[in-house]
Each structure stands twice: as C-alpha cells, then as structure tokens.
Amino acid sequence: MLKNKTLFHLWLGCTALLITIGIIAIYSASAILASETTGDALYFVKKQLFGLVLGFIALIICACIPSNIYEKYAPV
C-alpha cells in the first residue's frame, strides 16, 4: 500500500510541475501580445486555466462512473 501512495504522490507532483511549467511558458510567450491585443496580459493564461478546470471536472465525473458501464459501451 505504501508503494501505491508513493507512486500516486510522485505522479501527482510530476503532473503539477508540468502544469506549472506550461502556465509559465504560456505567460512568458504571450504576455506582450495579449496585453497589446486585449489589454490583459493574463488573457491566454486565464483561458488555459479555464480549460484545466474543465478538464479536472471531466476527470472527476469520469472517475465516478463505475467501470462496468465503460465496459458495456466500449468496443471490443
């Protein structure tokens, strides 16, 4: 059980690190363009974070569905 928790925390940490690096990269690459075109330097970062939240909500919903339902409707 300890190994599963350790792997989960490692997976979670790596995912959070990649998300953070991606958000920083989006900000550094688009802050000037977003500021000039929309007046908000965080415009693209906000769009990315909105997509991240929607994806997380979809993940939670899909995780709550029992696996036998997926098996029933999935192709062979």
List keywords for this structure.
flat, 76 residues, mainly alpha
Can you walk me through this structure?
This protein is mainly α and 76 residues long. It contains three helices and no strands. The mean pLDDT is 91.
Secondary structure layout:
Elements lengths: L1 H37 L4 H22 L2 H7 L3
Helix pairs in contact: 1-2
What is the terminal separation in angstroms?
32 Å
Per DSSP, the total helix count is 3
Order of helices and strands: HHH
Q: Measured on Cα atoms, how large is the radius of gyration?
A: 18 Å
Mean pLDDT: 91
Uncertain spans: none
Report the sheet-strand fraction: under 5%
The number of strands is 0
Major sheet characteristics: none
Residue share in helix: over 70%
Output the structural class.
Answer: mainly alpha
Shape: flat
Brief summary:
With 76 residues, this protein is mainly alpha-helical.
